């Protein structure tokens, strides 16, 4: 192959491969950011597609972010303390809980789409299905509030009037992704419902401190305050598959979205279980003031989970955040944050965490990419991209060019051999012809002498 053509091909490969590799690498560079909100952060949620982050505050504001942009897409002015926020899987709809109402917003507008009237203090006791179709909410009687009654509400997103309601005490809720099943906990115990009717599928007498249902609704877990035990059930029966007794009651109990793993905290010990066995896979002693964590303090993904614990406020107002791998009994990362009652959420694909920090002078939302926590991942990935998109094509072009050169040289050498053979053959033929002519002349001369 011509030397100039080879240089041209290598230059072309570099011009195509390197920008593409650079684009891939740059697209994976950490995009961590911070944002300061108006007041104490009460609630944070992340959409299941990991694109959107929502946060609600004591001062009555709700902030909606895209994960890669520290500037909010929307700021909703609620004018009342926000107890809880919940966002559906694609981020199109947000439900905001205030004292006696639930408010529905869309991603594209700061105006309220719909209001759901509920009992006093219901604002923090609701769950929004991942498909954005159904809301379960409840309340429990408070003697100092004349308007408070025990109520369970089941709403469709498209109607402010409940599909059905029941006069029953509700302090905890958890709903499946499609809204077909949900569980509620209250002063009487635990009940499993289907969205198709107000009669519970089954009810269990207990004192649930924390409850959780898998996305499919196949598995249910509770942390019982009365007997300090963890119970796991199948949807079909109120008879537990197994239970585990703790020294102090477990709180929270969190079931992984696929229903295969359980995380709970009791007496400053973190436990990881598989659904098949009451023997913990491992335990880890966490640092912190609290014997227990809150429901919002534990997040699961397919491979990782996270937990945040408040440190002692008498020593310092701080929280510590841990990231664990499921099969590793020591954290792979931890960090102290100033503030108290901090909130932690883990992206469902485990590529970032969101921490709401309530420090004395700054109320901050931190979005931290895993690439900034484990930067070597970025360098190794970048090297592999460069190797694949630049090194391999260059090597291929060079190898092919040398192969073509070898073929050309071989053919040229073969032609030279043929030419040499032809030249040698012609010379031999000429010599032989000359010798034959000499023989003929000698022969003719001999005949003449004889005559």
Q: How much helicity do the residues have?
A: 10-25%
Average pLDDT figure: 82
Distance between the termini: 71 Å
As a percent range, the share of strand residues is: 35-45%
Give the SSE map.
Blueprint: H1 3-27, E1 33-36, E2 41-46, E3 52-57, E4 61-66, E5 74-77, E6 84-87, E7 93-97, E8 101-106, E9 109-117, E10 126-128, E11 134-139, E12 151-156, E13 164-166, E14 172-175, E15 181-186, E16 189-194, E17 202-204, E18 208-213, E19 219-224, E20 229-234, E21 242-245, E22 253-255, E23 261-266, E24 269-274, E25 282-285, E26 298-300, E27 304-310, E28 318-325, E29 333-338, E30 343-346, E31 352-358, E32 363-369, H2 370-373, H3 376-450
Helix pairs in contact: 1-3
Key terms:
451 residues; alpha+beta; 3 helices
Describe the structure concisely for a colleague.
With 451 residues, the protein is an alpha+beta fold. Helix content is 23%, strand content 38%. The chain has a 4-stranded antiparallel β-sheet with strand order 1-32-31-30.
Question: How does this structure look, described?
Answer:
This protein has three helices and 32 strands. It is of the alpha+beta class. It has two domains: 3-23 and 381-447; 30-378, Methylamine Dehydrogenase, Chain H, CATH 2.130.10. The strands form eight sheets. It has a four-stranded antiparallel sheet. It has a four-stranded antiparallel sheet with strand order 2-3-4-5, with no helix packed on it. Strands 6-7-8-9 form a four-stranded antiparallel sheet, with no helix packed on it. Strand 16 (189-194) and strand 17 (202-204) form a beta hairpin. It is elongated, with a radius of gyration of 37 Å.
